[in-house]
């Protein structure tokens, strides 16, 4: 362990709190006092002595957010959006007097959830907020920047009601396509042909459409996925070899869609194009595992919401129910 004065007047800490085989921690400070405080913090929190309990983390949540940004947020393509969400949640917690990590107990989290529900948030929205905070702490734990257990793991999520989900019929699709033009039409056609999200399709470049496939790069889970398309559609949408292909208007496409289908469930809007692809894929006899890969779902449970659209889904209920067996309806199996 050492605190060394550098040529620029700062002080560098170089320490291995778990011995020569352990992790090496180095950091620079403007004063020797700050460096000494940091050394004491490291020796107390980063030891490998199982018989010594690690003390509560008394850092401010805003400090943890800053460390999350350094180790994860700034290098993630959704990092800035996530930071804004975390900042808002931390501000809400501060209204309750929860400003430090050690104050973020199971009871405090449960009180926070009640406060958010009282403000009119849906259980699903509260669950998402808790998941976002939990994710921040998990990233810090993985980066060895947070040494205490994740308190959000002790709180069971609210049970969420299944959201309404609709899709466009063949006639509604024809009506929608006939009323759009230019870039809006191209984007909607690609959404219906690939199941891509609007922002995934809208940001496509010429180099992402090649060999009869659309390659989605900026996806929700960060993983690339490729979806085949018809050669005629490829020729229609690929107007240049490189660079962004089009600049569709979300608001215009949404307005036309709402005129055609005014009873869309709240919060769906153009996401109904993705539902339409998945629904017709299953109705036409598509495979549920293939659909999972096309949509880029992490688990098959996410894709199973479309399973009941398959032609043969649960047909055994008709063939094997007791009325059929008694010869009252249908044919005996």
Helix content: 40-55%
Strand content: 5-15%
Overall number of structural domains: 3
Can you list the strand order of the major beta sheet? 1-2-3
Quickly count the helices: 15
Query: What's the CATH topology label of the largest domain?
Result: hpI Integrase, Chain A
| CATH architect. name of the largest domain | Orthogonal Bundle
* SSE-based structural type: mainly alpha
Query: Element order, helices and strands?
Result: EEEHHHHHHHHEEEHHHHHHH
CATH C-level name of the largest domain: Mainly Alpha
Low-confidence stretches: none
| Main beta sheet | 3 strands, antiparallel
Strands, total number = 6
- Alpha carbon gyration radius: 27 Å
For the record, what is the CATH homologous superfamily label of the largest domain?
A: Intergrase catalytic core
Domain Core-binding (CB): 59-141
InterPro entries: CB, DNA_brk_join_enz, Int_N, Integrase-like_cat_sf, Integrase_catalytic, Integrase_recombinase_N, Tyrosine_recombinase_XerCD
Keywords: DNA integration, DNA recombination, DNA-binding
GO molecular function, one term: DNA binding
Structure description:
- By secondary structure, this protein is mostly helical.
- It folds into three domains: 2-45; 61-154; 170-309, Orthogonal Bundle (hpI Integrase, Chain A).
- 46% of the residues lie in helices and 7% in strands.
- It has helices at residues 32-45, 61-71, 79-95, 106-118, 123-142, 170-178, 182-194, 198-202, 231-237, 250-260, 272-283, 288-295, 300-303, 316-319, 322-325, and strands at residues 2-5, 11-15, 25-29, 209-210, 213-216, 225-228.
- The protein has a three-stranded antiparallel beta sheet, with helices on one face. Strands 4-5-6 form a three-stranded antiparallel beta sheet.
- A hairpin with a 2-residue loop joins strand 4 and strand 5 (213-216).
- The radius of gyration is 27 Å and the shape is globular.
- The N and C termini lie far apart (79 Å).
- It comes from Serratia symbiotica.
- One of its GO terms (molecular function) is DNA binding.
- This is Tyrosine-type recombinase/integrase.
- Pfam families: Int_N (PF24624), Phage_integrase (PF00589).
């Amino acid at each position: 362990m050492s605190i060394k004065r550098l040529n620029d007047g700062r002080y560098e800490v170089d320490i291995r709190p778990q011995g020569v085989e352990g992790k090496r921690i180095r950091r620079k400070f403007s004063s020797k006092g700050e460096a000494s405080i940091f050394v004491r913090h490291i020796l107390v929190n980063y030891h490998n002595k199982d018989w010594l309990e690690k003390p509560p983390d008394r850092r401010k949540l805003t400090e943890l957010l800053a460390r999350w940004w350094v180790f994860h947020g700034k290098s993630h393509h959704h990092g800035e959006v996530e930071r804004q969400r975390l900042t808002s949640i931390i501000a809400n917690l501060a209204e309750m007097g929860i400003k430090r990590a050690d104050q973020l107990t199971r009871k405090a989290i449960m009180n926070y959830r009640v406060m958010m529900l009282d403000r009119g948030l849906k259980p699903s929205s509260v669950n998402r907020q808790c998941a976002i905070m939990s994710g921040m702490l998990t990233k810090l734990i993985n980066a060895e920047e947070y040494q205490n257990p994740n308190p959000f793991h002790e709180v069971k999520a609210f049970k969420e009601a299944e959201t309404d989900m609709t899709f466009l019929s063949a006639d509604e699709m024809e009506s929608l396509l006939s009323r759009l033009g230019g870039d809006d039409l191209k984007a909607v056609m690609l959404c219906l042909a690939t199941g891509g999200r609007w922002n995934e399709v809208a940001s496509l470049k010429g180099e992402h459409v090649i060999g009869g496939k659309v390659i989605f790069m900026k996806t929700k889970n960060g993983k690339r996925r490729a979806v085949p398309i018809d050669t005629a559609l490829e020729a229609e949408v690929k107007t240049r070899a490189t660079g962004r292909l089009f600049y569709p208007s979300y608001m215009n496409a949404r307005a036309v869609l709402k005129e055609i289908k005014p009873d869309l469930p709240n919060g769906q809007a153009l996401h109904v194009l993705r539902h339409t692809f998945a629904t017709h894929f299953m109705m036409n006899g598509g495979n549920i595992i293939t659909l999972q890969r096309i949509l880029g779902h992490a688990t098959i449970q996410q894709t199973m919401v479309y399973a009941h659209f398959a032609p043969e889904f649960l047909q055994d209920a008709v063939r094997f129910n007791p009325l059929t067996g008694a010869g009252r309806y249908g044919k005996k199996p």
